[in-house]
Design brief:
single chain; 417 residues; Growth Hormone, Chain: A; 21 helices; globular
């Protein structure tokens, strides 16, 4: 990468908590992205049915809703730095162990219950990234964070070789144990490098004598005032649709391509590499040059790319395994869209929230999104139980709605400017 590239300049200029967050991220992002493509296939191999897999996805969203609801109060009362450590260990170290030794449905339910606590660390992480840092570099920082996880894609084909040699279940069990160790190191090291932000210290002092319940719902007026803004309300709608789409895509896309296109379990490991190469190219060429002042084109183009990927999969379905190119094309479209939409949407919502109430308002917005999205996994699971094509058809309709909302967002943003 040339030293003049915006991402390189951002990486070298990072200081304080932004530096700590970015530099320790590989210890979490790489193992997470290694096992992520195999989650639903691993569940099926252990003996779970599609409806159970969908139920776990919805249960996970419901628990994320509850933890997300209280996350702002927890982060404000106990501080960004401390919650990153405690809830990081609870939401990743223990669940990875449970996934590694899982023997059935209830193991996954217990692991998902604990894993849903990542909503607390996610809120804390976002505050640490934004507070006392250069907000003009936010898109580039989120781009770098996404890039870090993509390096797992270059290692993923090795996982495929292990699956061919030792079969799927033993390989994924070892992978989860590896993730447990790496993530534990990340949270301990992260804690040592971080410093509580000035806003964080101020909020700790202000919240000393308040309960979590009063802190959570005491910010309701700020939250309602925020979502009354047409722009923020539209962001919430778009985030909800995207959350539904992403949970369905991540859970049922692997099951669909293995059943309908005859893709083997070991070949699944190739797609993270395809997505990684695509996403890195998009990050370097396109995303790093996006600004929050011109969002219409990237939003619409990203969503249309996902739409095209789904359409191609459905159109070439009658050809089955002979149309494997459609699966690769779908992976490329999905990677392109996420590379454009992810950093952009993260930045849009964060900079729209008042700084002092960012933690609580962000947690309430996230909770609203999750609450509305809860049925998505269950509905898709019921559909997939009848036919594994149906979840993709559902995602097709979700994407059409996302495009319409994105057009409204750009119209409102133009009026605000």
């Amino acid at each position: 990468m040339k030293k003049s590239h915006p991402l390189w300049r951002t990486l070298r200029s990072l200081k304080g908590n932004q530096k700590a967050c970015v530099y320790t991220e590989p210890l979490w992002a790489i193992p997470n992205n290694l096992f992520l493509p195999f989650v639903s296939i691993y569940m099926a191999a252990v003996g779970l049915q599609d409806a159970q897999i969908g139920m776990i996805a919805s249960f996970g969203l419901s628990m994320q809703f509850l933890w997300g609801l209280f996350s702002g109060a927890i982060v404000d009362k106990y501080g960004r730095r401390r919650t990153m450590l405690i809830f990081g260990l609870l939401s990743w170290t223990i669940p990875c162990l449970l996934w590694a030794v899982s023997q059935g449905y209830w193991y996954f339910m217990a692991a998902v219950f604990l894993n849903s606590m990542w909503q607390v660390t996610g809120n804390s992480f976002s505050c640490l990234i934004v507070e006392e840092g250069d907000t003009g570099q936010l898109i580039n920082i989120w781009t770098i964070l996404n890039l870090i996880g993509l390096f797992a894609g270059f290692v993923s084909p090795i996982i495929g070789l292990f699956i061919d040699r030792f079969t799927l279940v033993p390989t994924i069990r070892v992978l989860y144990l590896f993730a447990m160790v790496m993530m534990t190191i990340k949270f301990l090291l992260h804690y040592r490098m971080l410093e509580e932000s000035n806003i964080g210290r101020q909020r700790i002092e202000e919240c000393k004598r308040s309960s979590l319940f009063s802190l959570t719902f005491g910010g309701w007026n700020v939250f309602t005032a925020a979502i009354r803004q047409s722009r923020i309300m539209l962001y919430v709608v778009l985030m909800t649709l995207m959350t539904c789409f992403n949970i369905i895509q991540a859970t049922f896309w692997p099951l669909f391509i293995t059943t309908e296109y005859g893709v083997s379990n070991s070949m699944i490991s190739i797609f993270p590499l395809v997505k990684a190469v695509t996403t890195i190219l998009v990050f370097l060429v396109i995303t790093s040059r996006l600004t929050l002042h011109s969002i219409r084109r990237p939003l619409v183009v990203g969503l249309c790319a996902q739409l095209l990927g789904i359409v191609m999969l459905l159109v070439f379905l009658p050809l089955g395994k002979f149309a494997i190119a459609a699966v690769f094309f779908s992976a490329v479209c999905d990677a392109f869209a996420l590379a454009v939409l992810g950093p952009l949407c993260e930045s849009l919502i964060l900079v729209s929230i008042p700084a002092k109430e960012r933690a609580r308002t962000n947690s309430l917005i996230t909770s609203m999104v999750l609450m509305i999205s809860i049925p998505a996994g269950w509905i898709a699971g019921q559909l997939s139980q009848h036919n594994r094509v149906f979840p993709l058809v559902l995602n097709l309709f979700l994407l059409i709605m996302e495009i319409l909302v994105a057009l409204f967002i750009t119209r409102v943003s133009n009026k605000d400017r």
